[in-house]
Task: inverse folding
């Protein structure tokens, strides 16, 4: 059983954090660096962007997550993504890890790094190293430290994204906490830019990797804000075992509990990421049922929430189902268009708008009432099997354009 | 040699047209129906949307273009797309062709139909048939008739899209004319919603089909406004042979001349479609050179002009090359990211912003000056071969959202 509790990355035993302003971002008050630290080496797993242009920190972290059993710290900066920065960019990520390691008395290879922000510029290393030096003495296990870190990793996000849950392994209470940031350049194949998950459970690295991959595939990889897959997308999990619970080394009840916790955490954060998409006013969910296979269900759900025209219609509370059917049609999925039913639903109720691939007459007034609330779901029934999939997106608004027309200034 | 002349679909010999208001669209003055008629049966070729959800008129026309040698008329309505309308929708397209054929004294199968507008509603058949009855007596070979037809096929377009050219076949002057409409729901796999090309050249149907396919692949299929592939995309060519030029029946100089005319016409209209994309303020061209193969060049060019983030940056005159590199990276194309050079150019000059996959320091002022004009080109050199490709798109603006948030009202 999974219980939601207050907290973030510092909720599990043995995890410390800090977040503060180093001075990378414009403005005078925005926090822009964060650190997470485990008192003991933690089993590590990660998933990363599939973009061929990937940032220097992704290169650094991928090596650690793939080749090492453990890591013990993560240092994050916002403002500059350290992507498209070549060898110098890589050396800067390495130097950040080395300096963090030196101050924490760890090998550099125990330190993961992450960056997000503008692509193509080199990190201001004096500011970064100064930030590292300020972060280390500020590390604490407090609730406030988690909040500070969650705030420091944000870019165009409008609010912090945190969660913590409790679960049981071998009768012992374990905790999992996480923080993440969105909110543009987001598309299937890593829906978030950055997500950091901590847990005091102990788990075999192979199992942790496998379950992380499976959960991300159903959560972050089913989110789209704008169809643009970032260069920096990173999800990292650190499992330090400090709960004292027995180490999970096989399939079974305990692994299921850990997986359920991971699913809860990632589903929540993925939805938060979609809902807080740049300029978004609505969480727009596509729930496809009755599919002949998983790939068909996933492809259709993702195509619906990615369509600019459908997203603009959701913003306008316009029951323009033609666009939704059109987005399904060009998705590449193979299905019978003449069997499709679509019902739009929200907390205001639900209304069937498509029946057998066509649109019977409906009450515009009733549709408008149902499309009014902040969370809208398209329930798409294919009548061609029993497989389902869910994808999360948001509406396309004036503010998306505003935010992105001049992001750097 | 291809010579541009004034005119549209009525420029070639033997083609008549008409355009008028039948009363499908809201408002009181918008023209919403058009007709094109050839005095003699014309060799027909067509390319159509690849969307699995395709409109009823596409189903009707595809059969004619694939199974018949000739057609003699096209009737078009705007306002309602006749897509997702099931069997009734198909019967309505058929009835429109039948009534047009009856009045023109042609078999229904000599009449092509096209619709564009809102998806999911049935055509108001009384209005459509009334429109057909008014169009037939209005058909003339005049310049004004071409203009009226070009105006009547528009939806959210801001201006008419017409072109006419002259070329020579066997020493005889031939003419080709065309009209098309954009401007949302546009993406590779048929960049326009509707395009009608007329010519008084005579050509073997197999050769016409082949050349049309090749030209569309390099022109309309390289255009994107919003990534949404329409249900109604249709390009039709009618070649009636009334120039008196010898029929083109083999490869050679004459076929090359016809192909060059087709290329000129489709390139012009494809660019017009991109430039007049919904809400667009800029034509944004990606020209990829130095690619190892055609597919890589095309994939990269299309990914650049399709990226919402890159398009928003172009709107903001923001030299945010990171987004462009990012869009290349997630395109799926295989290339060496560390060899990429990018130069942005316009009539104001050019500036190299990416060298070897990284961004050297540059003058923001100079970049702003170059990104100011209405036509911007990204020149992307891969240094990995000698193949090139061009794709055309537009910027993403507030007005795109405004137009699409409540299209139906």
Result:
């Amino acid at each position: 059983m999974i219980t939601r509790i207050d907290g973030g990355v510092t909720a599990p035993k043995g995890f410390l954090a800090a977040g503060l302003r180093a001075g990378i971002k414009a403005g005078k008050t925005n926090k822009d660096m964060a650190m997470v630290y485990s008192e003991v080496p933690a089993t590590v797993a990660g998933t990363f962007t599939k973009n061929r242009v990937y940032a220097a920190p992704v290169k650094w972290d991928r090596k650690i997550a793939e080749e090492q059993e453990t890591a013990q710290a993560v240092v994050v900066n916002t403002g500059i993504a350290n992507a498209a920065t070549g060898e110098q960019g890589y050396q800067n990520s390495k130097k950040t890890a080395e300096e963090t390691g030196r101050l924490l008395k760890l090998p550099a290879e125990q330190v993961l790094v992450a960056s997000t922000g503008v692509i193509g510029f080199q990190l201001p290393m004096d500011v970064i190293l100064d930030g590292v030096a300020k972060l280390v003495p500020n590390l604490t296990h407090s609730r406030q430290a988690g909040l500070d870190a969650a705030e420091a990793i944000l870019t165009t996000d409008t609010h912090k994204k945190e969660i913590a849950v409790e679960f049981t392994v071998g009768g012992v209470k374990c905790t999992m906490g996480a923080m993440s940031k969105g909110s543009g350049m987001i598309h299937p194949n890593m829906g978030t830019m950055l997500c950091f998950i901590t847990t005091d459970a102990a788990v075999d690295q192979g199992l942790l990797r496998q379950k992380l991959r499976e959960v991300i595939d159903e959560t972050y990889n089913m989110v789209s804000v704008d169809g643009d897959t970032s260069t920096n997308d990173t999800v990292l999990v650190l499992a330090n075992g400090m709960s004292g619970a027995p180490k999970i080394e096989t399939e079974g009840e305990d692994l299921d509990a850990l997986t359920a916790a991971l699913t809860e955490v990632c589903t929540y954060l993925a939805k938060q990421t979609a809902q807080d998409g740049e300029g978004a006013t609505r969480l727009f969910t596509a729930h496809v049922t009755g599919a002949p296979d998983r790939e068909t269900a996933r492809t259709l759900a993702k195509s619906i929430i990615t369509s600019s025209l459908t997203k603009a219609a959701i913003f306008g509370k316009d029951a323009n189902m033609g666009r939704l059917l059109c987005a399904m049609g060009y998705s590449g999925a193979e299905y019978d268009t003449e069997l499709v039913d679509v019902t739009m639903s929200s907390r205001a109720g639900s209304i069937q708008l498509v029946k057998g691939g066509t649109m019977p007459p409906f009450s515009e007034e009733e549709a408008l009432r149902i499309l009014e609330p902040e969370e809208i779901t398209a329930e798409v029934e294919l009548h061609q099997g029993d497989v389902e999939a869910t994808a999360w997106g948001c509406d396309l608004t004036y503010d998306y354009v505003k935010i992105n027309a001049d992001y750097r200034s």
Notes: Chain B is about 35% helix and 25% strand. The radius of gyration of chain B is 22 Å. Chain B touches chain A through 66 residues (CB under 8 Å). Residues 188-192 of chain B have pLDDT under 50 and may be disordered.
